[in-house]
Every structure is written in C-alpha cells, then in structure tokens.
Description:
By secondary structure, this protein is of the alpha/beta class. Helices cover about 25% and strands about 20% of the residues. Strands 1-2-3-4-6-9 form a six-stranded mixed sheet. It is globular, with a radius of gyration of 26 Å.
Amino acid sequence: MSCCVRPPAPASVRPAAALTPASVAPALTTRRRRGAAVLLAALLAGCTSGGPPPDPSERRARELLTQLSLDEKIQLVHGVGEVPEGAGLIPGIPRLGIPDLRYVDSASGINLAGSGATPLPAPIALAATWDADLAEAYGRLIGQELRALGIAVGLGTGINLAREPRNGRTFEYMGEDPVLAGVLAARRTAATQQEQVVATIKHLGFNHQETRRFSSNSVVDERTMRELELLAFEIAVKEGRPGNVMCAYNLVNGLKSCESPYLIETVLKQDWGYPGVVQSDWVLAVTDTERAALAGLDEEQPGSLNDFVGSYGVQTFFNQRLKAAVQDGRVPADRLDDMVLRKLRTLYRIGLMDRPPGPRQPIDREAGHRLAHQIATEAMVLLKNDAPAAGSTPLLPLQPAALRSVLVVGAHADAGVISGGGSARVPPPDGIDPVPCTEPERQPGPEALFRACATYYPSAPLHALRERLPQAQLRYLDGRNAAAAAEAAAAADLAIVFASQWTSEQVDLASLALPGPTTDPTNHPYDQEALIRAVAARNPRTVLVLQTGTALTMPWLDAVPAVLQAWYPGVKGGEAIADVLLGAVNPSGKLPLTFPRGESDLPQPVISSTELDVVYREGLAMGYRWFDSRGLTPLFPFGHGLSYTQFAYSGLSAAAYGRGGVELRFTLANTGAREGAEVAQVYASLPASAGEPPQRLVGWQKVKLAAGERREVVIRIPRERLAIWDTGAHRWRVPSGSYTLRVGGSSRDAGAQSTTVRR
Length: 759
C-alpha cells in the first residue's frame, strides 16, 4: 500500500485451518463490514505524519473516486460478458477520462485471431531457461504487442506449481519450485507493465488439475500453502507488482478461491500489502455476491450486463446483485469504493489513465520472431546424449560431413511445431495452421471443451534441417507405419524421430506416456512409443526430439542414445531445433520439473474423476522434495540438463551476507572444447529441527563460459530463502542450527560442492 500506516487485519481473519464454510459464513457479514471500513478509512485518510508522501496515483485515484456515481462504480467492477474479440471488456467512463479496458489471454503470447502477435515458446519452456533476463524480455514483448493492439490488460502470468504433472495446463506455468517460478514471474510481470499495460498473475491458488476444476476442493495445510505455492505468488506480487491477481475456479479448504477471506484478504492484501485488483477467473468462479465482495474480490469476469441472464448462460453476481447488496447494506459502500479505488490506483500507476490504449498498430514480427527463436534455443533441455553402439563420442551435436542420408519421422515435422491449447493458445500469425484440424470447433461455454485439435506453427524442423544439411539426402515419413519407418531407418546414416504430446486447459492427461490412438486419436493417431522402439532397433544412431508441455515417462529410453526436450517451442521452433541438433547453439536448458519413472512414483498416483477433495497428503514434499523425501530415483531430476561441453565446480566457500543471508563463492570451469552456459544451482538443507524436506532451491546463476574458461561466481542467498512458516505465530521464521549448502548442475548433481554454515 502507498499509505504509511498499515490498517489492522479484519476481525474475521483466521488461520487456514479455521476457514470452512460453516465457520466463516455466519460471521462474515458484520465482521467483514467492519474490516472493510477500517481498510478504506486508512486508505482514504492518507499519511498524516512521518514516512514518505503518498503516491500520486493514490491521491489522483481518491479524487476521481469522489466523482463517480453508484452506477459508474458498479460498471467498473465487472465485465460485459462475451465479447467478439479477446476475453473480456469493461467499458470506460469518457466523461472522467477512464478508458475502455479490453482483456486478452497472454500466457504464451496474445490469443487474438488475426492480430499477428508472436507465438512464444510456452511458459514451461521459459522456466527451462532459468534466465530472468529472458523472462523480462518475454514480458516486455508481450507488453509491447498488447499496447500495439490497443489492449489494456494481458491475462498472464500463470505460476501454479506443477504438483500434478498430468495437469493439462502445466505448459502454461513455470515448474514445480516456488522460487524459480516466483522470480521469473516477477521479472516478466514488471516488464509487461513497463509498457503501460496491466499484467495479471494467476491463479490464486492451488489450481493444480483440470479434472472437476470448478468444484474440486484443494485441502492444504497452512504451512504447505505458505512455503510452496503462496511463496511463488508472494515473490511475484512483491517484486513484480502486478496490477491484477486472478483467483481460481477451485475451492481451497472448503471455500471458493474467489470467496476466500484467507487467500484474498489475509494473505494477499494484508500480509503482502497488495494494492491492486483481485479479479475472478472466467465463469463459475463466483457463487455468491456478498461472500465474494466481503472476502475481498474486486472484479468479476467475464461478468455480464444482466446478472440474471449472465455470460455463457451462467448467472453472474457483480452487476445488479452487487448494486442491490450495497443499497440494502449487505455489502458496505466502503467495500465497493475500495474495489474501484484499487482499479483507479492501478490505472494511474501503470500509466493507462494518462496514455490510454490507442488504435491498433502493426506488430513488429521480426523482433518477435527473433526473440521467440532465442528463447526456444535456450529452453531446450538435452536429456540424454550417449555414444551410439560401436561409437565413442556422444551422438549430438550432429556432424554434417558424416551424414549422407537422414530419416526424419513423425509428429508433423514436415509441416510445423505443436503448441498447447485452451486460453493459452496463440493463433498462427497469418491464421494458417499447416496441420488441418479434423474435428469441428467446439461451441464456447463454461463446460464445453476448447478446440480439440492442436495448433501448429509453420516452422517445419524438416525444412530447417534441409537448409542446414544441403549435402545430405533427407527423407520424411509420417510415422503411421512403424515397420516402414524401421526399414527406412536401417538404410540411413541417422534417424531423427519427432514425438509430441498435446495438452490443454480443461483436460488432464490420462498418463505421462506419449499419447497415441487410444488416448488422443485426433492429434496422435499412431503409437508413438512403438515407432520409437522400431526405429531405434534398426538404427543405433537415433535421436529423439520431444515437443511436450510437461514431464514424460520413457520406457523406451535405453534404446535411444540421444533425447532433446524442445517443449512447445513457438513460432520459430523448427529452426531452433535444427540449430541445437547441429550445434549452432549449445543447449543450456534445465528441467523446471521432475520427470518420474512412472505415475506410481507421484504423490497422487491417479487423478480421481469422482472425489471432490484433493488432499495434499504430501505436505511440504511437492515436486523434487517428494522424490528426495521418499528416496525415489526419478527418470530425470529437477534442474537436470546436459551440454555439448562439460563444467566443473570447485572452491566453494560461504560468508555472512546482509541481514542474515549467506554469500557463496566458488569457481566454475568450462572443461570442454565448446563455449557453453551452465545454470549453477544452490540447494539448502535446513536444520533437522525445522521439519523440512531434504533440500530446497535457494538461488541460481546462469553463467556463460568460453572453452577452457574459469570464473569465480558469487551467489547471494537472502535470509528469506532460509525461512520456514511458523504456524503458531503465522509468520516466517529462520530456524537456528546447521545448514548445508550445495552448488551444482542439478538437484542431484553427484559433482556438487557443499559447505556447512551455522545460524
């Protein structure tokens, strides 16, 4: 908040364990009225003495608030329902200079047909770069393109943690670690808003599966909430300063996320001092006007012009219903004023009041495609790179002079690269999908599925490889006939198998195996795993390129010497894949989530289609913490990623830093013959008395080194990264005792350096 005096927490605030519908609802009305009145009084009073002067955006917003009628205030806190372009609209108030606010989805780029916007690599790919500067560039490009298109609000960034890798939206998020996701989200968000558009962070919170997403209830204890997903949001909110935070569809501990006083009021607004807007997710996120308003929800989307008809046939709650609740005193007028004040303050702070969105301008495609290519190459993770049978050197990078014939097979590699679906889908820039959809378009609605076909971008890996291998004969087969592919592979110097996995909002994966005709016949009409086995059996020089949105199980892994994880690589994905395969770019990506050997190794072996309660029985042991706590060996650990060169760590030392932090110094050496970049990752093991999983990520640095170069690297770990959540005091606490700090190339790097410090 910009006020120097922080208002006290409302009387209704209670620990997470106490927040159930039965305990909250009866006392909610009167106590939340008092809390809202106290909060607004502090905001409107400003600072009376001491501290910095009020933010000009605060003063201007308060002045403008006094000029609004009740109907105009109501108009500003809900959308108008379905709109022809984009995701939503709040009409402006011309007499007061308040602009129209158009909303579009922008998780992987701008989801607006005909806009020419850049389809970027998926956010999970951005997370695999472990590069905060690239996250900033990603956010800045989205902000520039939103601004060029005359759009005020972009609906990204998603940072729900990958607790359940079969979640259809894993590709939209940034992995399983809260610090990695939070830091990258903060940099992306701040950069978008520097372009004078509002960025939204979503979905608060614990929105970890799509199965029964409107009715599932995430049952999570307070400490787990605070140390994992809420920590990601805390970092992103405090450092990225988003204009909007979107609450989720699901329930959390018995209350709808968008009607949860604990999540919205206690955590977000009080504990973190969030001054912006809390907006609902789209359709069925709100069930009760009074409960949502008093819990702290500031905006309903997509809303409607008539609550009793509603959007997509679903009734809404923040138009006529909210007005009536304010008029009869069930929702205090102060609460409505607070909703509007938060919006006006945000618009002034970001610059939309002084520079409203203008008419549509052309997108700078060259700049967008150039950045998309860079991110795609730096996101690719070299999972495996062994020498083929009878060979002595790793199969990758490819050596063009040794290749006369190459077989390329599968996954539409002759046409383009795949992307994810749902609201995070970005249309092809020219509106032409190189892989025609064979399914009819689904009708929109709260329960209707999104488009059933994957979207492809016309960046064909086959064409890119042909350009880079002019001396070789390249043959393509579509993969539907595994026997024919195996026969062709036997006659080739090299086989490159492309495999893909389509994931989308509203649909969870049946398993983490590569999809085929029984699990996704529309997009994967043949058995991809059988194809891999057949080709690898006939050609020991087989490379597998994966285009997926989450982790995979790989029962065929031993048969393939080289595996490259390309994720959903965006509009220049084909060129980026070819550049990495041929060594024009040395891969430096690291996994932002663990790849299990099988679903039985996950905390939730099966996603129930009938059980509404999703109980987080693993507690703090989410992601790699689960595998460490249970002594399970993953297929590929969190942070894993190979290079075409080698790195060595030495000379680790630790010293006190700042107010309770630790400064690590070590030498990182490139001991190979190629330039490359290494992500040096720092993990901390806390004192046994803390009751934590074996280790947590506390910092990292991506370092680029020439062949043979050695460099001293300094990584500073702030005190906050060593803290645990004290459920008795409801605050962060750094436990006393012995801490082990390790630095290496992954969470399970056998060559990691370690040191011990005491606090």
